[in-house]
Design goal:
single chain, 21 helices, mainly alpha
Length: about 375
């Protein structure tokens, strides 16, 4: 049995190698139909005949290759400088480009099918020794869907229930952290690939809960991506499942990367969150934690930098602000959160005014001195000028 598997794997590798070479040659032919490219493609066509002859799924591709060979031979025979010869060559070149494009599309569909079948099979095996291979094929899948929407690819993903397989891997505590993180990234890429189809899968499944429970820098980044894509409905889901407290605790992590990504997540939630979600964040002591971050070594007050610039110095000020935030990522973080609420999509105007008062009151309660409170309060009140 093991011997048969090895033979089948070797045959698959050989087919995939020829397909990749044909795909590149077809692309080269469309871009630059030189004699060198044509010769290389015809050589590959001969090799493909023997490799593809045993696979029924490759019969369409074999037919296309035969058509291309015929067109190339006709082009080669079309000589002369008469108007008729020139027109015939132009039409024949168009036919060659069209068939080469069809070959490239057909090959990509075959490669996608093979790679996705390998992905599903690998993830459904509970073999910890294959973590490196799983990470590799998950990364390969993420890169493929990140190239943009493709109807044939989507049909394959849906037919083979790839989202469910990815989510199961993400939620499997027995899988390694690396594999789960790559599965999370692949889920995020699928949502970007087609929001209309995969947003529903995220909202109905356990993806968000698994991302928050993992609590790694990578998983929180994917959560941020999902919030930006799904917006208020996802923040509603986080609030309904009582997961906001966990996100707020990430701001106190000893891992700086987690703390930074958690702050990005808080800002996204502030922009898209509705009243119930924002109230839950504030009740969890968010402002106190942000005040602590702002008073830390990585914090600071942007308002002090703003006051030192003359009118008309906007470009200089923006550059300095950018450089300052690179070294002080939590600078004016209270006001930056308040600004997200002010300009965001989740709140009505009346709710924005009410919650701003709650933030001001929380700042006064969280600050150890009136001087510190005065600076942060001024930033919150005049946040748009930061």
């Amino acid at each position: 049995m093991a011997g048969e598997d090895e033979i089948r794997n070797n045959e698959t590798k050989q087919v995939m190698k020829v397909l990749e070479s044909l795909k590149q040659a077809s692309q080269d032919l469309q871009n630059n139909p030189s004699s060198t490219v044509i010769k290389a493609l015809l050589d590959l066509e001969s090799e493909a005949d023997s490799v593809f002859s045993t696979d029924r799924n490759l019969s369409n591709l074999s037919n296309l290759l035969s058509d291309l060979k015929a067109h190339l031979e006709e082009l080669h025979q079309s000589k002369g400088h008469s108007i008729g010869s020139i027109i015939r060559r132009r039409f024949k070149t168009h036919d060659i480009s069209r068939v080469a494009g069809a070959i490239q599309t057909q090959i990509q569909a075959l490669i996608d099918r093979e790679n996705i079948e390998i992905l599903v099979e690998a993830l459904q095996r509970s073999d910890g020794d294959e973590d490196e291979n799983k990470v590799r094929i998950l990364t390969q899948f993420e890169e493929r869907v990140s190239q943009g929407f493709n109807r044939d690819l989507q049909d394959l993903v849906l037919k083979l229930k790839v989202f469910s397989v990815l989510e199961s891997t993400l939620c499997d505590a027995k899988s390694s952290k690396r594999v789960r993180e790559r599965a999370a990234a692949a889920v995020g890429a699928l949502v970007q690939f087609n929001k209309d189809v995969f947003v529903g899968e995220v909202l109905m499944g356990h993806t968000v809960q698994a991302l928050i429970e993992m609590g790694t820098n990578s998983s929180i980044k994917v959560l941020c991506t999902l919030i930006r894509s799904i917006k208020s409905p996802l923040v509603d889901e986080i609030e309904a499942n009582k997961q906001i407290p966990k996100i707020i605790t990430f701001l106190s992590s000893e891992d700086l990367s987690i703390k930074l990504t958690a702050f990005d997540c808080v800002l996204e939630m502030g922009y898209f969150g509705r009243k119930e979600a924002i109230e839950a964040m504030l009740e969890e002591g968010l402002i106190k934690r942000l005040v602590e971050l702002q008073r830390s070594e990585l914090g600071g007050d942007l308002i002090e930098m703003s006051s030192g610039h003359r009118m008309g110095d906007d470009s200089c000020r923006d550059r300095e602000k950018k450089y300052y935030l690179e070294d002080h990522p939590f600078a004016s973080c209270v006001a930056r959160f308040a600004i997200q609420l002010e300009v965001g999509e989740g709140l009505r105007q009346r709710e924005k005014r009410m919650l701003k008062q709650v933030i001001l009151r929380s700042v006064r309660e969280a600050c150890a001195s009136e001087a510190v409170a005065a600076t942060i309060l001024a930033e919150v009140l005049w946040g748009a000028s930061l």
